[in-house]
Write a sequence for this structure.
């Protein structure tokens, strides 16, 4: 009898612990929901979401850019060059990826990106064949002189407030990776001969970050998630397929030099070859 | 589907997916009279991604052009040139013939490519229309593509 009482006491104690744990867990869930602005009290006017609502007003932490509101598909970028020329960058109807970097001249975070893009080695992302286009706001909102001074050589910079509106850019810096739509491009990304086969395109990645390294990682992840193979031009560089004779010769020379084999090296000639250095003629 | 681009008195219709850039300016009245130097208008339009660094006649771009590529360049010269024999043709052509393109007409010969160059004047302005196609063998297909843009050029 005593043993039975002890066992029942232990079971009751165990159940009490379990109930206490569940209550605590429940309280933590309620507290977390409250911090997110969700209340189960239908009369709570301060809550962003109450029981019975069908939508949730999610918010980011202060200082973190809110996600871009979904708008229509990607569009070509039309604007002015920093020198005042009119420019139209085809984004949708061409094959391949276009990375639109929305930067401004004044934001501190953007300064790091302007610097990074000035260096051709830094601005390339391994495994990503994307054309970088910098998009600043138009001359009515940005200083042309500042953008002209910042615009990196070798990168097209377009001043277009319309592009910021078209893409609904929430903050600078902001990056949008667009895949143009064409199934029949040649090796250089020409969509088709008319350039108008399929002009939809899609946005495969986007986001804000404080450094180019972070953006590069996000882009690689986005491309992997989207299942986009590396471009054919890149594959050509990687594999050597489709290279011209001169390109192949240059590659071969480089590989040999890296291996310490210079022109005229005896190892390049079969034994006894009349052209080999030192061979009798 | 196309987009109309207009700057400095020159307009064209750009098919979707094409790149284009207008640089330089149209001459002012004083420049037209030869009193001042001016940065001549250069228009590049291509059905491929134009690189950032390009020469007036498309150097830098033609190397990036694939075999299906088309590049249309319109370059303006000093207004006084419009009176010279080189620019005596009185109007920009609104199309180029398939047999007008040739490999040896290129500013910089690149194997397989072909092009044509036409000097003319219109509205008192002197122009050179320079067209490059990525493949001479495909000229029957590519020249009509170039003509989509050439036929839309308007000069004021």
């Amino acid at each position: 009898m005593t043993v039975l009482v002890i066992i029942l006491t232990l079971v009751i104690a165990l159940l009490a612990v379990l109930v206490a744990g569940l209550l605590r867990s429940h309280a933590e869930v309620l507290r977390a929901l409250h911090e997110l602005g969700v209340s189960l009290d239908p009369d709570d006017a301060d809550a962003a979401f109450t029981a019975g609502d069908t939508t949730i007003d999610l918010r980011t932490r202060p200082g973190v850019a809110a996600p871009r509101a979904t708008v229509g598909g990607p569009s070509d970028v039309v604007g002015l060059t920093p020198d005042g020329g009119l420019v139209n960058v085809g984004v949708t109807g061409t094959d391949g990826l276009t990375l639109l970097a929305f930067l401004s001249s004044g934001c501190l975070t953007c300064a790091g990106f302007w610097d990074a893009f000035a260096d051709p080695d830094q601005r390339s992302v391994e495994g990503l064949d994307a054309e970088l286009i910098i998009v600043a706001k138009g001359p009515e909102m940005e200083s042309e002189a500042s953008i002209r001074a910042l615009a990196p050589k070798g990168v097209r910079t377009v001043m277009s407030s319309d592009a910021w509106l078209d893409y609904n850019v929430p903050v600078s810096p902001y990056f949008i990776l667009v895949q143009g739509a064409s199934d029949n491009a040649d090796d250089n990304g020409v969509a088709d001969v008319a350039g108008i086969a399929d002009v939809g395109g899609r946005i495969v990645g986007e986001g804000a970050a404080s450094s180019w390294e972070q953006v590069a990682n996000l882009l690689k992840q986005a491309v992997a998630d989207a299942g986009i193979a590396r471009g054919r031009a890149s594959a050509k560089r990687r594999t050597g397929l489709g290279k011209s004779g001169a390109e192949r010769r240059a590659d071969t020379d480089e590989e040999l030099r890296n291996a310490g084999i210079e022109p005229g090296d005896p190892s390049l000639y079969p034994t006894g070859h009349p052209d080999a250095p030192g061979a009798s003629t | 589907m196309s987009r109309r681009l207009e700057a400095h008195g020159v307009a064209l219709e750009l098919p979707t997916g094409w790149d284009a850039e207008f640089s330089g300016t149209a001459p002012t009245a004083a420049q037209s009279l030869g009193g001042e130097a001016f940065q001549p208008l250069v228009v590049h339009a291509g059905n491929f991604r134009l690189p950032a660094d390009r020469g007036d006649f498309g150097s830098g771009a033609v190397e990036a052009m694939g075999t299906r590529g088309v590049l249309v360049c319109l370059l303006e010269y000093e207004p006084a040139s419009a009176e010279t024999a080189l620019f005596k043709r009185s109007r920009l052509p609104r199309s180029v013939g398939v047999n007008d393109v040739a490999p040896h007409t290129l500013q910089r010969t690149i194997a397989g490519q072909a092009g044509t160059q036409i000097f003319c004047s219109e509205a008192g302005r002197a122009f050179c229309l320079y067209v490059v196609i990525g493949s001479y063998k495909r000229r029957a297909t590519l020249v009509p593509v170039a003509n989509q843009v050439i036929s839309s050029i308007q000069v004021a």
In short: Chain B touches chain A through 37 residues (CB under 8 Å). The radius of gyration of chain B is 15 Å. Chain B has one domain: 2-155.
